[in-house]
Amino acid sequence: MVKVVEVSDSSQQKTLRGHEAPVLSVSFDPKDEFLASASCDGSFVVWNIEEQTQVVSWPLLQKTNDVSNAKSLCRLAFQPAAGKLLAVPVETKVHLYERGSWTLVSSLSDDLFTQPINVVAWSPCGQFLAAGSVGGLLAVWDVNSKLCVERQKHEKGFTVCSLAWHPSGSQLAYTDTEGCLGLLDGLSTSSTAAVPASKTKPAKDYDDLFDEDDGGHMDEGLSDTISPLKKPVAAEDDDDDDDFLIPSTGRVRNRGAILADENSMDTGSLKLGQDRFRDDDDDDDDAGSTVAPDAAPLAPLRPVYEGPLPTPPQKAFQPGSTPAHLTHRFMTWNSVGIVRGYNDEQDNAIDVEFHDTAVHHAMHLTNSLGHTVADLSQEAVLLACPSTQELASKLQCLHFSSWDTNKEWMVDLPKGEDVKALCLGQGWAAVATSTMVLRLFSIGGVQRELFSLPGPVVCVAGHGEQLLIVYHRATGFDGEQALGVQLLQFGRRKRQLISGEPLPLSHRSYLSWLGFTAEGTPCYVDSDGVVRMLNRSLGNTWTPVCNTRETCKSKSDHYWVVGVHENPQQLRCIPCKGSRYPPTLPRPAVAILPFKLPLCQTSTEKGQMEEQYWRSVLFHNHYNFLSSNGYEVSEDAKTESQKEQQELLMKMFALSCKLDREFRCVELADLMTQNVVTLAIRYASRSRRMVLAQRLSEIALEKANQIQEEEPEEQEEEPDYCSVRRTSGCSGGQSSIRHNQQEEEEEEVEVEEEDGGEKEMEEAVETKRRVNPFAKEADAPVMPSLTPLGKAGRANPFKVSGSGKPTSSSGQPRVTNILDSMTSSRKSAPLSGSAGRSNKNPVLKPLVPRSKTKTQSTLLQMTGTTAAQKKTPENPEPAADQQKPAAVPPSNSPAENTENKRPKTGFQLWLEENRKNITADNPDLDEADVIKDAMGRFRTLSAEERLSWTERAKGQSGDAAAEMKKRKRADGGGDNETAQADENNAKKKKPLDPSSKLSAFAFNKN
Amino acid sequence: MDPSEVEFLAEKEFVKIIPNFSLNMIHLIGGDLGPFNPGLPVDVPVWLALNLKQRQKCRIIPPDWMDVEKLEEMRELERRENAFTPVPSPYYMELTKLLLNHASDNIPKADEIRTLVKDIWDTRIAKLRLSADSFISQQEAHAQLDNLTLMEINTVREFLLDSLNCMYKLRSNLQPGSRKGQFTDH
């Protein structure tokens, strides 16, 4: 049923009955005689309004039961003015019916229409008919010639649901079902403008132009595509003129264009870039037409271009800001504070608030200049506004940390230059402008360097002396942005660290945050929520460290990043429910996300550890960067991180060992530091993987050699040992001093190597009471064994710090240096002692943490003992020997021999003094028993007495050690033969030897 | 037990604050607090939060349940059910009072929340009175009341016990020796 109502007074109401289903559309005939309607029942009917009768009815359409199910909206339309024709969209064609006779005059169609036509619309002049289809296709026909003069495809292929011509006929507006409004412009101008051509002046000019140029200036963007074919086309044009005898030249042009189009199709593919380039040229000639921006790079009458489309370049933004069109917005939110902008009716103001009120109190500024961008640092607030017609773009800086009374300065930018992005560093400010220039200012307002950027700026960020710039490198296609990045370093040594490399972004995303971590590593976030961080140790590559979208609960939730910290590893961001940006009210709370490298199989134990390891490596890169830039670096944190990494490596090693992946083990060992490798060797030998142990020992040796080679060279080359670097390379004496200092500093830190060593020494002192008999034995000339080597190996609990040093004084471990001998012997004693009774010792720390820092000692002790134990079958006693007096031939057990070399302990001294008493008391005792007895007696002494003895022993030890050393060297020849413990140990111990001396120094001092 | 004592206990509850100062971790008998980073939320006991708030050293983030929608839902549930419904926090009343009195500027819709919590409280207390009444009138030996908070128990305890004792005395005077032990102290 269709009802017709007189709008003015609703007096005349006509009802047209006949449709059996919902009516899809109606259209008045311009003379108000008829009314056409289309309905879901599949018919379209022309009514006589006056008589309220059906004039004609065609069952042409598809039947549906409801409007929502109808495939096509079937918006029919009468030709305006005369109303001679009625256009009805039927499937993929448009039927034209003649008024009055209601006969099918013709039907317009186009090959491109594969889906039903939704709407038709007549141009105001009635000569052109536009149609929009379900697939998003738009076409314009010339009704007289029945030729399609223009085709256009909707960018996203949404269904076109309405069309409307501009009254002048030069533009066509359309809407789609996704709620977008589009305008077809320029492309249709020439064809439509041609319609009223005969009447309007500009059109005539046009015609003249055309005549002169012989068809050279056809539709913009089109002529170029056929440029190689210009001549023939022109010729055809002329022919057409004759053939068709159409009065208006404009129409001829269209006709020509069609032919041209055919030609161009023949010639093959069209280059988009060319088109655009030529478009510009044509614009010069054809000022009346405008070329749609990159969104519609198509020439009329040409098949729709289906290739990659250029992406609109993203606009410049400030990191941590919400869009400028909001009335209440964050102008910036960073680790220092928040700048909020209010821009509503009653107020235009800026609020500056600091997270830490100790920096500065909150500020409230009136924003009379209309600042749109802001940045905030510990020193200043930087604001900038775009230029207006009268005023130039201004840069305002509130330098609140200034010590004079002028806390503010302002700079006008040159005319025509707008601030696009800005940032603050330490003592400087950088401003990127619309003229692709980057201007540097000092924080006090002095203009400094300026330089040109390779492209329109997207974002800048500053930290300390580093400046990070992201700009448009080129035009991106298919939703991708083509961004480039520059990283500059100011300060004393000004240089460019990254020079215009492409910035990797996720697929079809744009940059959403740019900045530095609190520690100064460049970092950015793209609109897909992927956080990437610069990996300076891998040639300045960008590593994805987190995907914030993974933690989002729903698809429309986002995290708005406000800061990144490497230590502790925190990604500070604001969760936004259902949006990309947080509102200013209620005040959002910061949440912390952990980082997670997107490694494979992080659900497995292996994957987890690998992820942890590499994350740890990545997030501790900044130590090297900072120290290489002369910043103070906390050694504690650094060693801590190294410890963590080595620990993870060891765990992975153990895991792969368990899985029988020996090759993988070796690979892992390659990543370890030398002292951890030794631990790995121990692990391997314990789990009876001798092949593995063998290979590992090769690695260990290699590493040791490497260190030795690198040491004498410049120190900066080896970041791992940079803690040592500063003091290393000097004589043993100096480094020992450093050790002492370190010891004092680090006493509290349990895991520190020195500390561990010290404790060991204390333990050792105790243990010596028991084992010291060997000290006496030392006098005996026997002692073959691997001792010197083994000892040296054992002796380096200070390995981590010391490993690099020794080589400076000695390439060969065995030096005649007296310090050397002292330390090695001194050191080995306590350690071997503790090894002997390690299980009893309550002070002994858990193995793993210690292993990181002073693995060498523990490890080697253990290997020593294991070696000894292996021999047990041949030698019934050795295990016992370790603690028992050595009536046993010393050659049996290497472990034992090592003990012999130990310097004298308190008990030894005491024994020497009291030996006679004992022998006098019990003349029939043999050596072993004497010692046993002596030990018993010594124990009965008071604690003070014992302490005094040990003190004395310490004093003497130096000399004793020196003596022993000499003796050892004399025995050196025998070492190799008798060394029964596997060679590996010996090998790897060798290079380590010298380091022990340092520790000994430390000990002596105490 | 004094209501102020209950409140004292409530002050041990944890609440999130955003400090505007930086301080390393502080070690207290009750546990370690911090570290405090300006702008980063951190959990602290209510007593510390209020103290810092009064010195304008922090912003308090209201607990999750202190939200108009959730409280409205709770109120409806409380009114619908005959029994006591579980409360979001064992100290909801005290926390509401403390936070709203001292940090109402950090809590959106503070007045509405105050009203809602008061409504919930009133409903619950009314239920409590009602059940006490029926308990006494039916002369039951025992009753089970779930989901009561300390503050609620505390409000009725004194009166209920006193009146029960009193009634016991009266009854035992009326019928000496007969119904001993009917009412027990709570």
From TrEMBL, chain A:
GO molecular function: chromatin binding; DNA binding
Highest taxon, organism lineage: Eukaryota
WD repeats: 16-57, 117-151
Listed GO biological process terms: DNA repair; DNA-templated DNA replication; mitotic cell cycle
Localization, UniProt: Nucleus, Nucleoplasm
Composition-biased stretches (Low complexity): 292-303
Stretches with biased composition (Polar residues): 725-739, 804-827, 854-869
Stored Pfam families: Ctf4_C, HMG_WDHD1, Mcl1_mid, WD40_WDHD1_1st
Biased composition (Acidic residues): 235-244, 708-720, 743-764
Major subcellular location class: nucleus
Domain HMG box: 900-968
One GO term describing the cellular component: nucleoplasm
InterPro entries per record: HMG-box_WDHD1, HMG_box_dom, HMG_box_dom_sf, WD40/YVTN_repeat-like_dom_sf, WD40_repeat_dom_sf, WD40_rpt, WD40_WDHD1_1st, WDHD1/CFT4_beta-prop_2nd
DNA-binding span(s): 900-968
Function (record text): Core replisome component that acts as a replication initiation factor. Binds directly to the CMG complex and functions as a hub to recruit additional proteins to the replication fork.
Name the record gives this protein: WD repeat and HMG-box DNA-binding protein 1
Taxonomic source organism: Austrofundulus limnaeus
Lineage of producing organism: Eukaryota, Metazoa, Chordata, Craniata, Vertebrata
UniProtKB/TrEMBL annotation, chain B:
Keyword Acetylation: no
InterPro entries linked: GINS_A, GINS_bundle-like_dom_sf, GINS_Psf2, PSF2_N
UniProt main location, coarse: nucleus
Domain DNA replication complex GINS protein PSF2 N-terminal: 2-61
Protein keywords: DNA replication, Nucleus
GO CC annotation terms, alphabetical: CMG complex; GINS complex
Gene Ontology terms describing biological process: DNA replication; double-strand break repair via break-induced replication
Protein function: Required for correct functioning of the GINS complex, a complex that plays an essential role in the initiation of DNA replication, and progression of DNA replication forks. GINS complex is a core component of CDC45-MCM-GINS (CMG) helicase, the molecular machine that unwinds template DNA during replication, and around which the replisome is built.
Similarity comment: family membership: Belongs to the GINS2/PSF2 family.
Protein name: DNA replication complex GINS protein PSF2
Organism: Austrofundulus limnaeus (Annual killifish)
Taxonomy of the source species: Eukaryota, Metazoa, Chordata, Craniata, Vertebrata
